Structure formats: structure tokens, C-alpha cells
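Objective 1.3, modelling of assemblies. Example input:
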Amino acid sequence: MSEKKGWKELMRGSDLPPASSLEYKTGSWRTLRPVWDPEKCTHCMFCVAYCPDMAIPVKVTEEGVKGFGARIYKGTVRLETNFDYCKGCGICAQECPTHAIEMIREEEAVKGSK
Amino acid sequence: MSTWKALTGAQAVAEAMRQANPDVVAAYPITPQTPIVEQFASFVANGIVDTEMIPVESEHSAMSCTVGAAAAGARAMCATASQGLALMWEVVAAVPGLRLPIVMPIVNRALSAPINIHCDHSDAMGATTIGWIQIYSENAQEAYENTLLAIRLAEHKDVLLPVMVMQDGFIISHGVENVEVFDDEAVKNFVGERKPDRYLLDVDHPYTIGPLALPDYYFEIKRQQEAAMENALKVYLEVGKELSKISGHDYPYFEEYKTEDAEAVIVILSSAAGTAKDAVDELRNEGKKVGLVKPKLFRPFPYREMRKALEKFKAIGVLDRSMAFGAYAPLYTEVRNALFESENRPKLQSYIFGLGGKDIFKSDIKKVFDELLSGNLNPEEQRYIRLRG
Amino acid sequence: MKEVYEVRMHARAGQGAKSGSQLLAEAAFKEGKWIQSFPEYGSERRGAPTVSYTRISDKRLRTHEPIVNPDAVLVFDPGLARTIDVTSGLSEESGILIVNTTDSVDEVKKQTGFNGKVYTLDATGISLDLLHIDAPNVPMLGALIKVTGIVKLESLEEVIKEHFLEKLGEEKVNKNIEGLKRAYEEVSK
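Predicted structure (C-alpha cells):
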């Protein structure tokens, strides 16, 4: 836990330095974890657009990645979820048209990774 | 070179705004503030200032636009009165916490109900606990000078708080008086340009303004505001000294008139103080030892200085142009507070006058002094001037 | 002249008493005086009774009380005297009453019960004749300065030009000044 600043150390008013939300790791809130299956993914970007925490990073690729139907998807594609910020809300799984995301219990995911 | 002009109080404030040439003015017309906006809009239309004037659909929008512009880095001003202030309240209350140096002339008018367009201080006195600096003006000249002073005070790096500059509705706002308008260049040099240390349009240095602050930070941020108010007491005098070089006038926290050897003194704000000075002169001619104290800076309130100024008198009458309903009147409350620490507390008496524009005459003030000198005082009783029984 | 000269104007909204009180003040301002001009505001609608005040002084004015004991009272509509005590606070020894009417001075004295100095002027007649509207304010000022000399005719002329040249054009301004001068000549005791 970080020390909270006293009133003299804070920026004036309620002003904050830029991008300070990056310091706030909401990943620790997660009780359910999205497990993404790249082989079922069409890279439609629904999950990226719906994610309330912008926790699904993307990249632009010319050679493409393999996805749903063993096809190659080029252009903007999604990457693995950033678990520092994913709070496990499940909106991505709910919206995914190809059911490429499954929510599993965080506990089990942690055990499984050990 | 300064110029003497025949101006209303509203026009005098518009002159100050012309000279300060703010980047943005967003305002909605409301009686009796309308002539400020009207006059300033004509300056904009005639290209005398290069202000972006935003005619808005309500006072709530007026203050919202002013806040947005000030956060973006502009010198932004607004003006209002009474119900207008009430309507913009939600945003007004947010400004001190955002630490935006907005200057807003207020033309004091009674609050509804019953609906009334005339002068009392109930609009501004309702806004004394939310962190705006408040300066009260006796006449058009003071309203003009206080507006200039307010801009520098608000924008000072140790303050960065909004300021309301008061003048009495109709009595001052619509009355024509001789006003000395200072040299444009001198005033321009005095007010300078707003140089914010950070602002939202500075895209190379992004920051966040107006976030949520929960119990873990809200209190700390509010404590900062209190520190800024403490600084404002000092900066007010400093900026005043600088303005003196142009105006030749002093800018104390409060004006003391013939108080030197006075036994009975009244404390009174704004235009009625002028009338009361004439009453003091007449009573002095009759050999009565009376004087007057007129607070100018009401927020922050200079408690220590006020105590030192007042504790030497035998009797003090405090005349409020608003009521606090169920509590002591606002000015009376502060005077009592100031004197609590005194070893020799004077006898105090609270008076209410002039609500909804009821006239006050020299003769009324003289009666107050007679009462103060007679010793028939009850500090826990509120007395009413010119109220039909 | 007194140190502070105070004028009260009774009119009906639309007759220009507010402007009148301001024109008078500004003429005095031009002559280096300290001035105040302020109207009493009610809920304004054309025809409602109005009161406007002018203070002219050799020293700085501080008071902001309404004028209680005027040195001169101007009544823009004689009908006002039926419902309002237009001579309230006006001294019968030194006070001056000027009424816009076609009645005689004696008749006005009878109507108002005021037995001080009374002057009459058909200001509405002058205004109708020259401008075809009931704007008696400028003629009433002409009468006031003839009777009292509190400001110079030229100062008032100058102020009228400043105020109205842009707004009304040269022809109407000239008619106003003509009305001012006619009133100056025609006011009767």
C-alpha cells in the first residue's frame, strides 16, 4: 500500500498529473477471468470497444495472425488481455460473437498457472 | 491620464472589463445586472475589446462556459444578480475547488419570494461559505476599482480563487455618478495578462481537472482552499498597494471613518455607508462622538484586524442588509466573532435595514446612533429599521 | 447657489424623466460638478407613475438616500398631482414647482395646494408641435434652467447632441434643441 499524500503535497485543487489512472491496477478486483481462445477469434474488435477499462491491447499487423476458421486476419488485431487492469466484468465474453472468450474463476486460474 | 466620466455603477464595471479585456465573457442578462452585459456586449460588437462573448441560455450555462474557458487558460468573466446567482449555484460552488480565478461582478438584489428586483444583500450573503472571495463596493467608483483589484487577486499564484465584486442593485448599478476611469495603458499594465501555470489547452503538458475525490482525498483538497483564503488576506493588501499607484486610493480591509475618538460606531456595507457618513458628519457637528466602519473585504474576513479596530469603542451597531433567518445576521455574526477574543467587548446591537430595496435615510442612521449613545442595547435582540409594526 | 441642489421629477413611464434627470446631471458634470442621477424603479410599463432624481453638488456626493427635500420639482403630467403628493418635502419659501400643463399658475396652485413659486409650461404642446410625440422631458429641462440657472443652456445642448445624434439623427436632435430653447422662452410665472 502506498502512502497517501498530505494536503500540502497534493497538486493544487483536485488537479491530477496526466495518465495517473495507470497507477491504479484494477486487475486486483477480478473474481472471474476472461480466457481468450485465439483460434475462435475473428478480431472483430467488439471486445476491445466494449471493454470499460481499455484492458485489451491491439496491434496492427501486415502478415496477419491465425484465428477463427484457421484463417489469417490482417490489419488491427487484438492481443492477450492486460490482467493488470482487467477487472473481470465479463462484458467481452458477453459480446463476443464467436464465443472465443470464456469466464473462469480467478481462483482456479491462479491455481492452474502454478 | 485618467478621465472623469458620468457613469452608472454597471457602466463603471463594464469599463473595468473593457480595460482588462478578458478572453471570454459568458453571461445571461438579469435585472439589475443587465446594463453591465449590455454595455460590455456593445464594446465587443464595436471591436473595442477582442473578447469572445458567449450569449448563453441561462445562468447555469453562463457559469459553466466561464469555468470551461478559465480551465482552458482564458481570463474568463461572468456577471449576475439574485435569482441568476441562485440558478448558477451548482457551478458557482464548484469554482473554488477547481481553483479557477474567475471574477464575477454581482449586482446585489433581493432573493425571491416574494419576487423583488431591488437591492439587498441576500443573494451574495448566501454565498459566503463556499470559498469565493467577496468584496463590497460603496459606489460606482469603488465597484470599478474593486473589479480591477479582483482580477489580480484572483489570478495571483498564491490565491487562485474566484472573486465576487458587489455593488448595490439600482442604487449604484443604475445611478449615474462621477467616475474617474484610469488611464487605459496604466490599467492594462496593472492587470496584465493571465499567465496560468497550467491550462487544458496546453496539450504538451496534459493534466486532469475536476476528478472524483472520495473521503481519502476530498478533505485534503478543501484544506488547500483554506490556505489560499489565508493567502488572499495578504495578497489583497499587496495588490491594493500596486493599484494605489494608479488610483491614489487606499484598499484596506475596511474603511474607518471618523473613528479616532468615537464612542459609538456603526458597521455597515456598501451604498448605505455613504449615506451614513453624511449622518456621522452632522452628528459630529453637534458634538457627538460617532464614527463608521465599512468592511470592503468580507471573504476572507479579517477577524484580527477587525477586533483591533472595534474593541476600543463603547457601543457598536451593526447594520445588515440581509437576514440569516433563525440566526444572527451575516455581518453582525462576523463582528461578534471578531470581538469574542477581546478583553473589553463593546456593547453590540444588531439592526436589519433595507430588505427588498426599502430606502434608508440619514435620519434613520442618526436614530441608530442616538440609541447606541443612550446605551439601550440588547446584543441578543435583532432590531429593524423602517419596518412597519 | 446651495452646496447641493436637488431636483425631483414626477412623470409617467415613457415621458423621458429618467433620461431627463440624466441629461441634467450630465450637463452639470460638464461644468465640473459632482452629480447623481437615479430613478426609482417599479414594475415599468408605459404610463405608470415614475420618479427620477438629480443631485448637483460642488463637493463629492456620498449619500445614497432618495431626495426628501428637493429644491425643485418637475411634474411631467398634471394628472399625477391627483394621486401623488408631488410637492412632498418642497419648501414653500424656497422650493420651485414646474408643471407641464396648459392651466395657469393660479390653477396649479389650487390643484396642488402649493403656495410657493410655481411655473407652468406647455411642454407636451411643444413636443407635439416639433416631434409629434409626448416627450416633454427636454422642454421641462429648458424651463428648469431658465428659472433656476443650475446649468447653462449650452451645456444641456451639448449633452443632448452627445446622447441623441447617433440614435435619432440630426433633424430630431435639432428639433429637441429648438424645444429646449422654446421652453426657455415660454415658461411662465
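The CA atoms of residues 47 and 100 of chain A lie 10 Å apart.
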